[in-house]
């Protein structure tokens, strides 16, 4: 099957450039979905469009055998591109800064390779192109839109993600691999007034500042050091003018955890700290909490991961490595959990190998290798696309 990769590459590379140049935000992936559906039909798959809004499913039946689902996410980010690529985004303030364009391209390539080599496998391949991963509700939207009835029983679900590690590598890991994530919007209230008379006010800026400082102690003083937790306050908004004390402040924070009990404990601690600081500041109203953009924990099934890992080792050799657990988050696991099937999620590299080696030698990886969501994130075209396509085919053949 992979002998056909050079032929597939002739359309894959232009398609990737096109997708990168025309990114679409979450729930707006209409052009991308159309490109995906047309390519799947050209490859001979049965196509279902509009699942969960803009989701697309392609089904390839090839006799009796296992039923394998492979997923790619399609949405881009509200980021202004700064890569300088000749095929940089043409959409102002929108960019494929997380590699979802590569995910789509690789899965389309894998689908065509399976279609071109029916003599090499048996069973059913289900390719799922998911919207709105970046906002954490795209997978759930497809599930709620009747995904189980549409795809039928499954044996396994597979997914991958491009990361800022050397292109050509694939990385697997059993067990917890990506954190759960929760975003929270907190509104605290003060009493507004003139900046020259703070004694007549309850200053929400000071209140918010004290909350930020105290929140730092949750991780450092309340969580076992062996349990990884990341708590970040990413935004504080209050006031309109230098000499006006406003009447409220809005904080937005993000929590990453690898353990459900720790997750619950930290969320409860956040509320406790905020309420206590509001009381200490004599806030005239109770604080308000809004939990949004929650992502599930990603826990790779041990047996499924072992099978994929063995296949990768045989095909990729020393380019198959172990993936460290990461504080990134994904909503992919919503799909196999809802469908009751085991799954594994792996990473593949997109960074220029020599540039990565130079950065390691100079101890400048963090500075010189742009990470996902950076305006400079730009996977090298090859061998990134080849590796992502090969990985899907190799993993799929472990069952099919």
From TrEMBL:
It holds the Pfam family M20_dimer. InterPro entries: Amidohydrolase (IPR017439), Bact_exopeptidase_dim_dom (IPR036264), Peptidase_M20 (IPR002933), Peptidase_M20_dimer (IPR011650). Residues 183-277 form the Peptidase M20 dimerisation domain. This is Amidohydrolase. It comes from Mycolicibacterium setense.
């Amino acid at each position: 099957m992979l002998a056909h990769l050079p032929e597939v590459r002739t359309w894959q590379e232009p398609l990737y450039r096109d997708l990168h140049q025309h990114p679409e935000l979450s729930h707006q992936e209409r052009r991308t979905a159309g490109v995906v559906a047309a390519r799947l039909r050209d490859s001979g798959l049965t196509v279902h469009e509009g699942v969960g809004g803009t989701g697309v499913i392609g089904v390839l039946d090839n006799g009796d055998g296992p039923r394998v689902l492979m997923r790619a996410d399609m949405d881009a980010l509200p980021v202004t591109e700064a890569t300088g690529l000749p095929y940089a985004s043409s959409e102002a303030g929108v960019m494929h800064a997380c590699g979802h364009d590569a995910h789509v391209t690789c899965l389309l390539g894998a689908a065509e390779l399976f279609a071109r080599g029916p003599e090499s496998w048996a069973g059913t391949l289900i390719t799922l192109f998911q919207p709105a991963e970046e906002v954490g509700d795209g997978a759930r939207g497809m599930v709620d839109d009747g995904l189980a009835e549409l795809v039928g029983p499954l044996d396994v679900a597979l997914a991958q993600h491009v990361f800022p590690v050397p292109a050509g590598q694939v990385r697997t890991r059993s067990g917890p691999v990506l954190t759960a994530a929760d975003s929270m919007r907190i509104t605290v209230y003060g009493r507004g007034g003139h900046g020259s008379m703070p004694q007549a006010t309850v200053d929400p800026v000071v209140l918010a500042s004290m909350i930020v400082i105290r929140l730092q102690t949750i991780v450092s003083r309340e969580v076992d050091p062996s349990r990884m937790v990341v708590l970040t306050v990413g935004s504080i908004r209050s006031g309109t003018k230098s000499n006006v004390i406003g009447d409220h402040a809005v904080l937005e924070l993000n929590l990453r955890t690898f353990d459900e009990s720790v997750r619950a404990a930290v969320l409860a601690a956040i509320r406790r700290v905020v309420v206590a600081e509001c009381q200490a500041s004599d806030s005239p109203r109770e604080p308000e909490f809004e939990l949004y953009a929650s992502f599930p924990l990603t826990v790779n099934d041990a047996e499924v991961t072992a099978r994929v890992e063995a296949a990768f080792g045989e095909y990729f050799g020393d380019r198959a490595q172990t993936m460290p657990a990461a504080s990134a988050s994904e909503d992919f696991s919503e799909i196999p959990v809802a469908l009751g099937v085991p799954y594994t999620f792996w990473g593949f590299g997109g960074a220029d190998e020599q540039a990565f080696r130079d950065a390691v030698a100079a101890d400048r990886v963090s500075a010189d290798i742009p990470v996902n969501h950076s305006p400079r994130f730009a996977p090298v075209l090859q061998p990134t696309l080849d590796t992502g396509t090969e990985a899907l085919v190799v993993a799929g053949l472990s069952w099919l």
